[in-house]
């Protein structure tokens, strides 16, 4: 637990937390308890006294923590007040921005974003601004926005519902299986379709971001749609989501590696391509498939695919 969010430095945080756990203590005792050099503990004590978070005892040689409910309660109240003022300022700026001229109002509805860095930044801003939902259509090789740029799990931590639809070709990309599995583990609801019409992120059903050219590989330039125009993107997402098949955690009845093999085969990869994706020999892939066919009591791969789908193996 850290008090740095309330404006304390790391040293002040360590010293105050040490004081709370000690009776009135001398400088050296505080420094030992906070695991700080004497000069840093002295500086922190002086600053805590200035802020009313600590006080010297009557003998002038020992320090005691001020009651947290009183001392930190004031800090919390001040923090809330600063945040409220900031929110009011942002609200006023938004209103001023919207009312400057007609051209700007139009730009509010449709914004064109150029350049990989700008697209990545706007994508991140959208994810972090989500209040209730983030809906994603993902297709092909990530270009402007890589998996490391995602803030989906952060959003889920704020009780934002995140849904994603991926197409089968995406599952053939190197590392895609692991990325999707990590997303599912983090709380993202994932479905798979044969083909996603275009890449898309839709936030709170109000703001959508998608490539200007939906059917190309490039994502630059990208268009951001708001308000009524974003509703079109929302309808598109819901249609694709409804058609999708849930991408579930590996079925407990079969091995995780077998799950990956089946998913890649159903995505249309050859035995050789599957082996390359999973770092194993073609013979190993074929041997595991034969074992799965025996387990499913089928004689062809077509029958195995049917069995896998209808028994939730993939």
From TrEMBL:
Domain HTH luxR-type: 251-308
Record InterPro entries: Sig_transdc_resp-reg_C-effctor, TrmB-like, Tscrpt_reg_LuxR_C, Tscrpt_reg_TrmB_N, WH-like_DNA-bd_sf
Coiled-coil ranges (or none): none
Source organism, top-level taxon: Bacteria
GO-annotated molecular function: DNA binding
A GO biological-process term: regulation of DNA-templated transcription
UniProt cross-references to SMART domains, sorted A to Z: HTH_LUXR
Protein name per the record: HTH luxR-type domain-containing protein
UniProt source species: Streptomyces filamentosus (Streptomyces roseosporus)
């Amino acid at each position: 637990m850290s008090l740095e969010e309330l404006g304390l430095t790391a040293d002040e945080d360590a010293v105050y937390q040490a004081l709370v756990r000690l009776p009135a203590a001398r400088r050296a005792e505080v420094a030992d308890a906070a695991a700080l050099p004497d000069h840093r503990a002295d500086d922190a004590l002086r600053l805590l006294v200035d802020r009313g978070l600590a006080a010297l005892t009557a003998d002038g040689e020992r320090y005691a923590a001020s009651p947290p409910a009183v001392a930190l309660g004031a800090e919390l109240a001040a923090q809330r007040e600063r945040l409220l003022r900031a929110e009011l300022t942002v609200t006023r700026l938004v209103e001023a921005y919207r009312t400057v001229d007609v051209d700007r109002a139009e730009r509010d509805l449709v914004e064109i974003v150029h350049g990989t860095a700008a697209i990545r930044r706007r994508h991140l801003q959208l994810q972090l601004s989500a209040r209730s939902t983030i809906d994603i259509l993902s297709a092909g090789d990530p270009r402007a926005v890589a998996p490391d740029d995602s803030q989906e799990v952060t959003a889920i931590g704020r009780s934002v519902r995140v849904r994603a639809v991926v197409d089968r070709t995406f599952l053939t990309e190197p590392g895609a299986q692991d990325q999707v599995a990590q997303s599912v583990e983090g709380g993202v609801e994932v479905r798979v379709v044969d083909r996603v019409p275009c890449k898309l992120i839709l936030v709170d059903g109000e703001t959508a971001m998608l490539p200007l050219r939906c059917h190309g590989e490039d994502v630059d330039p990208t268009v951001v749609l708001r308000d009524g125009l974003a509703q079109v993107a929302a309808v598109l997402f819901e249609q694709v989501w409804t058609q999708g098949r849930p991408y579930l955690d590996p079925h407990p009845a079969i091995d995780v590696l077998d799950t990956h093999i089946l998913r890649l085969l159903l995505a249309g990869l050859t035995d050789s391509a599957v082996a390359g994706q999973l770092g194993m020999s073609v013979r190993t892939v074929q041997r595991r498939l034969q074992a799965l066919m025996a387990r499913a009591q089928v004689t062809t791969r077509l029958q195995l695919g049917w069995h896998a789908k209808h028994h939730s193996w993939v």
